[in-house]
Automatic annotation (TrEMBL):
This is Uncharacterized protein DUF1330. It comes from the Bacteria. It holds the Pfam family DUF1330. PANTHER family: DUF1330 DOMAIN-CONTAINING PROTEIN, PTHR40257. InterPro entries: Dimeric_a/b-barrel, DUF1330. Residues 36-111 form the DUF1330 domain.
Length: 121
């Protein structure tokens, strides 16, 4: 299962830019022992990459009681991150320093959803 966007997905994400800020929804399922690797990835994000690209964590938390989902479809964690625009996200994921830490995220996750959201007007 992919846990990082590929070049085609990133190009589509940038091409479909409606303008303005973008809030990224991250649904995370950790691989066995992956939580620690994700904490290390998160530390780099919080201390380096989010400030560098003008982004902020809006919410981060552990999954809890599932009310509606098929068996085995709960998520271990949810992270919501606001970027000033899609281009900032694109620059971040192309940053060589960021690319050097993506292995932490890849090692940490067994499954994920990374979805851009647009505000309702």
């Amino acid at each position: 299962m992919m846990v990082e966007p590929d070049d085609a997905d990133l190009a589509r994400f940038l091409d479909e830019d409606p303008g303005g800020p973008v809030v990224m929804l991250n649904l995370l399922r950790f691989a066995e022992g992956g939580f620690e690797a994700y904490r290390e990835y998160s530390r780099h994000m919080r201390n380096t990459f989010l400030p560098r690209y003008g982004a902020e964590v809006v919410y981060a938390g552990s999954g809890s009681t599932v009310l509606v989902a098929e068996d085995g479809r709960s998520w271990d964690a949810v992270v919501v991150v606001r970027y000033p625009d899609r281009a900032a996200f694109g620059r971040m994921v192309a940053d060589p320093e960021y690319l050097a830490i993506t292995h932490l995220r890849t090692e940490a996750l067994s499954e994920t959803v990374l979805q851009a959201t647009s505000p309702w007007r």
